[in-house]
Specification:
single chain; Rossmann fold; eight-stranded mixed sheet; tRNA (uracil(54)-C5)-methyltransferase activity, S-adenosyl methionine-dependent; EC 2.1.1.35; tRNA binding; transferase; rRNA binding
Length: about 350
């Protein structure tokens, strides 16, 4: 349950700020700018298992490490208001339809600040034309897209993505967010992250290298601040979404290649060529800044060494421990000039943070 006491939230956020301060203190970091979250209805994604009790299927969640003791739910206060509005309507629909409920074991909601919604229904059975017809009726009734998943098969009713609109520095950017792909769960805090990153980068007349670009979440607004961008991402679905997002927003100064950060490091070091870089003239770039938003493991040592070449390193982290480890590797050549705490996951110990490092 959410603690609705504002003082409790403030205390927890202060504790996170203190932890980040302690982690970055060895590197002489300035005070962190803190971006708070709404205390409830902040999650735009939610995933539920279904649990049968009293002859009915209920939304259920489980404590970490315990998949036998369900917590049955009718509402989820941390989830967005749109998810909470859809939950009882979807439950009524599957209770009234054998085609929708038979061997349904998991439900996922994906929504946006702009009001779009997609529901994924997961089954332990093949999906057929009868299910498709029932799903089409449900999608129309709820005003959403629906994706049905069973082993080796995916059926889409409507679109397989949602459309989001985020406003950064007074400009609106539209994003296709595919079903099953990573998106930032806290839309309000995501806008703060994008705004902070753009402000930290500033308006520049050189180029940006972006690693781990995903669906272009940061790429779109950052591209408006530099001459041109070379962005990399290894996930095919994320690359397709990023290319669509660049086109939808008429951003034409970004070259996107499907390479991992490790592969790009090898390419820039001349270790091996990559056909996926055909047509990309690396020598034409005047990189001043590298932007990284790595997974929880942080940057591997070789990629970390690659970032050392740049005048500026703009780093968004979902794991402050690996952030500190990477900064320790870079500390002899770069210093932290700005840092921030983004409370993407209130009421948890999780922290998202950002730092701007500049060459000493």
């Amino acid at each position: 349950m959410i603690n609705r006491d504002p003082a409790a939230y403030t205390a927890q956020l202060h504790e996170k700020q203190q932890r980040l301060t302690e982690l970055l203190a060895p590197f002489g970091a300035p005070a962190a700018q803190v971006f708070a979250s709404p205390r409830e209805h902040y999650r735009l994604r939610a995933e539920f298992r279904l649990w049968r009790e009293g002859g009915q299927q209920h939304y259920a969640m489980f404590e970490a490490g315990d998949n036998r003791t369900p917590i049955l739910l009718e509402q989820l206060p941390i989830a967005g208001e749109q998810i909470n509005a859809l939950m009882p309507r979807l439950k009524s629909a599957w209770q009234a339809s054998r085609e929708l409920s038979r061997k349904l074991f998991q439900v996922e909601f994906l929504t946006t600040l702009s009001g779009d919604a997609l529901i994924t229904l997961c089954y332990h059975r093949p999906l057929d034309a009868a299910w498709q017809q029932a799903a089409e009726q449900l999608a129309q009734a709820l005003g959403v897209s629906i994706v049905g998943r069973s082993r080796g098969k995916r059926l889409v009713v409507g679109r397989d993505h949602v459309q989001e609109t985020l406003t950064v520095a007074g400009r609106s950017f539209t994003y296709r967010q595919p079903e099953g792909a990573f998106t930032q769960p806290n839309g309000e805090v995501c806008q703060h992250m994008l705004g902070w990153a753009c402000d930290a980068l500033g308006a520049r007349d050189d180029d940006l290298l972006e690693l781990y670009c995903g669906n272009g979440n940061f790429t779109l607004p950052l591209a408006t601040r530099v001459r041109k961008v070379l962005a990399t991402e290894i996930s095919k679905s994320a690359v397709h979404a990023a290319l669509a997002n660049l086109a939808d927003n008429a951003i034409d100064n970004v070259a996107l290649v499907r390479l991992s950060a490790e592969e790009l490091t090898q390419a820039l070091n001349g270790v091996r060529p990559f056909r996926r870089l055909a047509g990309i003239d690396l020598a034409s770039y005047d990189f001043g800044t590298v932007f990284v938003d790595p997974p929880r493991a942080g940057m591997d040592p070789d990629t970390c060494e690659l970032t050392r070449r740049f005048q500026r390193i703009l780093y968004i982290s979902c794991n402050p421990q690996t952030l500190a480890a990477n900064i320790a590797q870079l500390n002899d050549t770069h210093r932290i000039v700005r840092c921030a705490l983004f409370d993407q996951f209130p009421w948890t110990d999780h922290m998202e943070s950002g730092v701007l490092l500049e060459r000493r």
